[in-house]
Hints:
Organism: Neptunomonas japonica JAMM 1380
Number of strands: 4
Number of domains: 1
Low-confidence stretches: none
CATH topology: Glutaredoxin
Distance between the termini: 27 Å
Protein name: Thioredoxin family protein
Number of helices: 8
CATH class: Alpha Beta
Amino acid sequence: MKSYKALFELGDxxxxxxxxxxxxxxxxxxxxxxxxEVPQTLPQATLDALSEVxxxxxxxxxxxxxxxxxxxxxxxxxxxCELQPKIQMAVISKGRAExxxxxxxxxxxILIPVVAILDRSFQVVGRFVEKPVSVSNPEERIQQAxxxxxxxxxxxxxxxxxxx
Length: 164
């Protein structure tokens, strides 16, 4: 396995990652990005928690633009990085994650997006897999709300809980 630092350095930044998508995929990301610009989308408590991050963290994300969960959650994570420059993100492919990090993260398979949350020494301090736990309920109403971007703050909160 390559080191997490080496994988992070191989990864794409958000804009390069998005640029590889189809027009429809980029439009889905633009919709989520627009929601994240609405002041009420991210609660003040989430913004406060972000501002309290004092150490550097790296998010090594495995994702693909064709994946709706990636369109939603990687866009939310990018907003996190914009709001808190001490957190940086790089995106690698699902295939690279299967080859390089699946075993070390204790996963049987890669459900994307998967995020290895790394400290300043590139040591794993946590992970995020696919979608927020609060969305694991299969109820159609919850899944529809998630698809429409109503759970964006939960993605950020789950990552923040692991870096505090």
